[in-house]
Specification:
About 50% of the residues lie in helices and about 15% in strands. By secondary structure, it is an alpha+beta fold. The strands form two sheets. The protein has a three-stranded antiparallel β-sheet. It has a two-stranded antiparallel ribbon with strand order 4-5.
């Protein structure tokens, strides 16, 4: 039987008479040996006992090597509980969580070494017949219970992922707001016009209201270079630089909104 849910291991101390020591001492001498008893769910005939530190099998490791694995290593959690004098409870969903089982049915199942919903759901063939009348119905109910529980876990995971996505979008929006605030903070009072300034009244009215209108030409050129990687060519007028900066800023804002 390959399904691990059907394996019911238990560690305990087994006393063995040591004939050599007994003969030397002239009285019975016993050794204590840690053993692993393995039963199969709903199978009263199959019971095996092995020394806890006997090799179960050699297991291939990720690095390509092969490592002997003992029964204590194979069932490490139960062995740890055994050494700590704790109850060696099976991993899985306890039968007490299955609402369709009566108290008497739970006791009957435990007497057959069926301790978890996973073990009950995995039963098949002769092992399932050991449950008697209504056994297959119980097995199917256990499967349905585990399937529903798995679906609930998936829904909980999806909800958590949605919350994480909303938090990420909110953080991106915060960063965009900070970037826009930094741009606005660079605005300075409009510089005074110099005699001989060749900026025409028509150009000035066209750019009125732009956040860049009060910037120096040098600052606008530097900003354009920082955003595009290239400075404006030639010697464009102030109005031309403002219009170029407005166009670049509009593209950046649109891209940021699309990303959000």
């Amino acid at each position: 039987m390959s399904n691990d849910n059907l394996i019911v291991p238990r560690f305990y101390i087994h006393t063995v008479k040591n004939s050599t020591k007994s003969a030397a001492a002239g009285r019975p001498i016993f050794d204590e040996v840690e053993v692993c008893e393995i039963r199969m769910a709903a199978n009263k005939q199959t019971v095996a006992v092995y020394p806890a530190h006997e090799v179960w099998k050699v297991v291939d490791q990720p690095d390509g090597s092969r490592e002997p694995t003992t029964y204590a290593m194979r069932f490490a959690d139960l062995y740890r509980k055994f050494k700590a004098n704790e109850a060696q409870t099976m991993s899985g969903t306890p039968l007490s969580e299955l609402p369709f089982l009566s108290a008497s049915k739970r006791l009957e199942l435990k007497a057959l070494s069926v301790h978890t919903a996973e073990a009950l759901a995995a039963l098949d063939g002769n092992n399932l017949k050991m449950l008697g009348m209504g056994g297959r119905e119980m097995q199917q109910q256990a499967k349905a219970y585990l399937d529903n529980a798995s679906g609930s876990a998936d829904a909980t995971k999806l909800a958590a992922e949605n919350v994480s996505l909303r938090d990420m979008i909110a953080e991106q929006q915060r960063q965009i707001n900070e970037m826009n605030e930094a741009i606005r903070s660079k605005l300075a009072p409009a510089p005074s016009r110099q005699v001989g300034d060749d900026r025409g009244a028509e150009d000035e009215s066209a750019i009125d209201g732009s956040p860049f209108v009060s910037w120096d030409d040098v600052d606008i050129k530097n900003w354009i270079e920082s955003e595009t990687g290239a400075k404006p060519r030639g010697n464009p007028s102030h109005a031309t630089l403002v219009r170029q900066a407005d166009e670049i800023n509009a593209r950046l804002t649109a891209a940021a909104e699309q990303a959000a």
